[in-house]
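for the writeup, i need someone to sanity check this before i put it in the appendix. the sequnce is what the collaborator sent (i think, or maybe the updated version? ugh). structure was predicted straight from it, no edits. if anything looks off just tell me and ill rerun, i have time this weekend
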Amino acid sequence: MKLVYDLMDALHEVPNILSQWGTHGNDIEKLRLYFGCFNHSKWENLGTSPKPPDLVDIFNYKLAEFEKELQNK
């Protein structure tokens, strides 16, 4: 239950950031900030399966993938 609460705490503002994209400064850093609120390492040793995601790492990977795709167009 606490794992889900921590995850939702990190994600609850994402839809609002996306819906107002570009109107309030550096949205990419804002997303990283919120994703970073979820401390995945806190939950890794509790035997949870699947392992909790590192949201910042996933975001950075997907952003780099997207930027690479844009460069190839």
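The longest helix spans residues 55-71. The helical segments are 2-11, 14-19, 27-36, 41-44, 55-71.
thx in advance!!
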